[in-house]
Amino acid sequence: MNLEEGKDPKEFEPTxxxxxxxxxxxxxxxxxxxxxxxxxxxxxxTFEQVPPPIDRGExxxxxxxxxxxxxxxxxxxxxxxxxxxxxxxxxxxxQAMVERIGKLGVPTIVLDGGAGAAIFGPxxxxxxxxxxxxxLWRHTAWLARYGNFAELKRKRAHITELPxxxxxxxxxxxxxxxxxxx
Length: 182
Description:
Layout: H1 17-30, H2 35-48, H3 56-69, H4 75-82, H5 84-101, E1 109-110, E2 118-119, H6 130-145, H7 163-181
Helix pairs in contact: 1-2, 1-3, 1-4, 1-5, 2-3
């Protein structure tokens, strides 16, 4: 979760909080490996389907659908949202990660079962083949584990073309056109 500077995190609950809170309950009930299929299903709804979930109600519906797709009980969402401790845990985990690494990218991946380096990335433009994805991950993990490595950046090859990004672009163009008419 990205914390907003100067705001009490307990007062700040973004649209994505139902997913984060549900992930806490998934991990507690099914282990962290069960979060992968859930986030894969949620990612499809968030980045590949238009319109994406924009408000809390739409996000809760997307979380429930994603739980079903991941063969998990959709009641896990209700359990998460009815327990304020799940939001407290999201905040505590975020703050602990910020203290550990200084700054947080979302999502942050911690290697070696939580004992290794914490990274954000790699950021890629297009979906790689399975073989290329494995090779990319091997190199990324090696660099992250290499104690003398600090950072590697370059200009993006091109902006990722996800359906949701095109939808947002269209929404901004429509809003600008309406603004010009007034």
